[in-house]
Amino acid sequence: MAAQVRVLRQRVRSVRSTQKTTKAMEMIATSRIAKAQAKVAAAAPYSELITDVLEALANVSTLDHPLLTERENARRAAILLVTSDRGLCGGYNANAIKSAEELTALLRSQGKEVVLFVIGRKGLGYYNFRQRPVVDSWSGFSEQPTYADAEAAAASLLPAFLVGSDGTTPDGGQGVDEIHVVSTHFVSMMTQSPTARRLAPMEIEYVEQSGTGSDAKLGPSYEFEPSPEALLDEMLPKYITTRIYAALLDSAASESAARRAACKSATDNANDIIKKLSREANQARQAQITQELSEIVGGADALAAAGNEED
After folding, report:
1. CATH number for position 51
2. Residues paired with 119 in a beta bridge
3. Domain that includes residue 81, residue range
4. Which sequence ranges are marked TM in the entry (predicted)?
5. Which of 30, 157, 212, 266 has the most C-beta neighbours closer than 10 Å?
6. Quick check: is 6 in a domain?
7. Is 263 a catalytic residue?
8. How much of the chain is in helix, strand and coil states, percent to nearest 5?
């Protein structure tokens, strides 16, 4: 009985230690969510403006730039998967990897070979465990990404895209015809949805001028210096880097929100386990005390009976 009480109390101490860890991680994740959301909001105006300028450039240029031209008979596509470096974030990584696998199956059904680029240790571990090749990977910044991290990923993806599937990069790697990004979009504190979108070739939506006369809706008027083609060569790589950076920021906010929810659930579950184990320990202790009292009373009765027999 005493051994059972000791075991139960040891389990309570172990669960409390785990609870302190999950509570601390929950508080850290909560503080990071606001910072990540602020970074997403700060990066949004630049992303929207560079998109508007690129659309204006595309409308006045000959559209012969590789990042704007749909390639015939595309044979190879690159997928950039964004995951986390650490665990304890619920289904965040599993959902992102599932979306990447669904996209891989779709591209393969279209007759395209898929090459993988991974951000985050969890995604890299998933593919390494299954012995599936990863062209390039980056880690160590999933919770607090910087623009330099996005530049590093873009520096690996863009050369492969520009040479196409028929060419090879300066470092001897294979070229690709498409670039897709799979990341997680922050919807709310309780909802984060994995998304897959194509970065290149860039999809330009052409909208005809609506209305006539004074009712006509005019777009912004730009004067380009140097030529639109030269500006496209300079701005489209920046656009790709910006979109990757936006995906990293959105994923960072989603990761922190998912970790907060998972750690809060773990803390609440630990509290329930502690109550249950404490109750069992109290019951075991009460049973031990009852047994000891019964033994004392029984011993006293036996001594009293023995004394009466001697008399």
Report:
1. 3.40.1380.10
2. 82, 138
3. 19-203+223-264
4. none
5. 157
6. no
7. no
8. 60, 10, 25
